[in-house]
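sanity check this record:

:::
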Amino acid sequence: MDSFPFVHVETVRFRDLDGMGHVNNAVFLTYLEQARLAWFGTDATFALSDVILARTEIDFRSPLQVGEQVEIGVRPARVGTKSFELEYELRAGGRLVAEAKSVLVGYDYEHGASAAIPERWRKRLSA
């Protein structure tokens, strides 16, 4: 996690498990979302009100079990005019659990169209 300046921690809940007894793949998207919201900070009423998630890719490396603490590192990887990319690394007990990337797009919900990345995001991405 040394190369990730921000790390968010989640605890694996019983409800996160699937029939095989490990965290269901879909739950990883929730972990990423929670880390993304925490990375943005608490200075906004609704942090994601001017961006939309366009893509997420996850490479699963090791299963997670109930009660484990998952560290989710977040860092900006690319910043464009209307979109930016975040990278994630998920670890539990020191082992690599997953690696992920997401693309977020500046979005005007009123008009239903992409927009330039908001200045508040640009500041956070360059911090």
